[in-house]
Amino acid sequence: MTSEFAEFHDELRSVAGDLLAKDRRVQWSTLVDAGWVGLEVPEQSGGAGASFAEVAVVCAEIGRAASATGYLGGAVLAVGALNTLQPSDTRDRLLTDIASGAVRVAVALDPFDFVPDAEGADRILMVTDRGVGVTDVPAVPRPVVDETRSLAAVPPDAQLTDLLPFAGDAGAAVQRLHDRAAVAIACDSLGLSEAMLDATVGYAKVRHQFGRAIGSFQAVKHACADMLVSIAVSRQLVGAAVQAVAEDRPDAGSAASMAKAHACAAAVDIAGKAMQLHGGIGYTWESGIHVYLKRATLNRSLFGSPAVHRKRLAQRYL
Prior knowledge:
The protein is of the alpha+beta class.
């Protein structure tokens, strides 16, 4: 999302959009073959040696397509957690295996009741203030209203095969992982918001009432304009947060909270408005808008609600 790599990000966005448009449920092997899983894996471990900025592009496109991929837990969180650790044989082997697709890893941030993409994972990384523990205890699936996401519970007392120490301050490392997760979800919400605006504008152009396209009615135009303004704010906040996290800047926490609070709350409003502006068809199963609304609703709760992140931001003034 930086101007230096804008052309590369545009190309990555286009390729990702084409791939995700083929099927809402994308196989893990497809993500591995595309090279997305290993984007942040160091080159010596078989990855691309890219940054969080490139991962963010993929996250936004996954949100735009409302795809069920397992990318959040198996790549964004897993590789991010491993990159915060001190070099070791276990860490390096896991990075290599993730990039090659040999293993699928999930990450349990506190609490362990709703761990993204933990069901069926070969290893689960349990983040603690002492380091990152590795376990192969099976996770228990949790029912969730969003059918494009997979959440599972991991026993907090699961037996660990390894406990890997952080490379730096443990508290700062854990907070960085939470910030990464929050920004990744904000990217997802931005993508689905853009998809809902595009779908609504497209529908308003072809749906006619009283002999006119409904897009010509002032109320519809104003509603779409409000959606566009909200997305523009989300885009700026998410872009700033991605850059701050990618560069590990001191203000990454504040930037992440601003992006998460606004983008995820806005996505719920935009998806709801899209459903309303589609009229009766918007409330049917066939329209598909319900998929985006449920995903946006879950995104709003994952890794801190807007209220939690606003409270965090308010602490700066105490």
